[in-house]
Amino acid sequence: MEKMDATELNYLTEIGNIGGGNAMTSLSVLLSSKISMKMPKVSLMDFDDFVESIGGAENVIAAVMSNIIGEIKGFILFAMNMEDAHRLVNRLRGIELSTEIIFNDLDLSAIKEIGNILISSYLSSMETLTGIHMRPSNPMMSIDMAGAILSFPAIINSREHDDILRIESQFEGEDISINGHIMMIADEESSVIIRKRLGL
Amino acid sequence: MAEFEICVRPQMITTIGLGSCVGVVLYDPSNGICGMLHAMLPHYSAIRNNSNRAKFVDTGLEDMLAALIRQGADKKRLKAKVAGGAQMFDFSSDSDVLSVGLQNTLAVKETLERLRIPIVAEDIGEHYGRTICFDPATGELNIKAVGHSNLVI
Question: Which chain B residues touch A152 with a CB distance below 8 Å?
Fold first, then answer.
């Protein structure tokens, strides 16, 4: 499942740490609560394993995705389980709502904004570490089955095998805990550029 | 994903979480032999990295047809049902890459026309994922989607 040597793992963990750190700061402001982060879990995996890691192809998730623009091309996607999405929305609204409730436009744009913050944080940590210029496009969002959502970026980049960077971060505040998954896929040429720049 | 399976009644066949991917069922109502393809991209020839023919609509359908005939299906009696090919994310720009769902369903129509197999029912496009299950005993394709009621075509 994971084909990484120690150096590669170090780099990827560093991306998770720096990106997660930036995200943590932004989330603290947004949720007006001190947010801390557990050590992120970073791995390279194939499409099927990624889908399993987030609860299987039929599990409903909330996902925010951006194209990566700049010196490299690809997609970066932030996904969380509906439980986490509901916790987040409840927190932002300041009330407890049933997990059955359908999100309104304001809720959806809040989820999108949080996804955007996380995506930007991880991408900027990647930029810092590699020195490769990259930024996210305007975020797009979807709430649906994991298999249906996640297959899209994998297909576009013809990447189903061992080439999906996954960062799982757990953010915790006094009364809130959010588990977020970042999926990053670069096209073939871009992967070569990244590896070269990192000396891998 | 990126594969097809043949199945004979009383078995049923299913594929989970079709997004921009397309699901195609070919079945012979006279003997309950059917196949389901879960294809990811429209054309085999358009991609360099194409070791798996079932990943593509055109070659996937050709290979599945051959497998159905080997299994005893009669090509003249085959019918098709199609689901999927959604656009999961709302892109404002409309480049080739982004309408992969639409390209997939177009490729299904082209290929089936070439193979002279009629499409008798379809539930395609839109912006949501689908899980589909086909029962060759009844010829019914059951479609589940998040936030939508079950559909039988």
Answer: 19-20, 88-89, 100
Percentage of residues of chain B with pLDDT beyond 70: 92
Mean of pLDDT values over A164-168:
85
Top residue of A73, A82, A144, A150 to mutate, by most chain B CBs within 10 Å, is A144
User: For position A122, which CATH number holds?
Assistant: 3.40.1550.10
Residue A142: name the closest of B100, B129, B1 by CA: B129
Please write the tens of the pLDDT for every residue from A74-85: 889 999 999 889
CB B134 within 8 A of CB B5: no
B5, B39 contact by CB (below 8 A): no
Query: What is residue A126's three-state secondary structure?
Result: helix
Task: Give me B73's structure tokens.
Answer: 């299906």
Q: Which residue has the tokens 């009629």?
A: B118
Cβ–Cβ < 8 Å for B141, B124: no
Residue A171 reports pLDDT greater than 90: no
- Measured over the CA atoms of residue B48, residue B53, residue B56 and residue B58, the dihedral's sign is positive
Query: With an 8 Å Cβ cutoff, are B17 and A65 in contact?
Result: no
Task: Please answer whether residues A159 and A77 qualify as being in contact, where contact means their C-beta atoms are separated by less than 8 angstroms.
Answer: no
Does B66 score more than 60 pLDDT? yes
* pLDDT band at A1; cut points 50, 70, 90: very low
Contact assignment for B19 to A140 by CB distance below 8 Å: no
Is A1 a member of any domain? Answer: no
> What pLDDT sits at residue A159?
60
* CATH, domain range B3-152: 3.30.1330.200
